[in-house]
Amino acid sequence: QVQLVESGGGSVQSGGSLRLSCAASRSPFSINAMGWYRQAPGKQRELVATITSGGSTNYADSVKGRFTISRDNAENTVYLQMNSLKPEDTAVYYCKLTVNIGSSTGAYWGQGTQVTVSS
At 17, is the pLDDT very low, low, confident or very high (cuts 50, 70, 90)? Predict the structure, then answer.
């Protein structure tokens, strides 16, 4: 089974930066896309950013201009550079990997990493 290992979370002051990493173990399946989701206490998990194997990106409106998603295909790693962090960015951030399995797709989730932004 594919495993995702997340790192880079922590506590920062408002306006600070963090860089999240998510490394996927070698997979027998080709990667369709990778993305980041977040979930704050009492709230639904929401999409933050995604990047396809071809490099196309998509961002939630709330993070546009502040967050940047990127990937290192050789390392099967996806990153989320978070700048100008706000207290409302506080959440558990989850990495998601979507792979191609024949004509279907499968999804894998990381364990989550806590991001806390103080005012």
Answer: very high
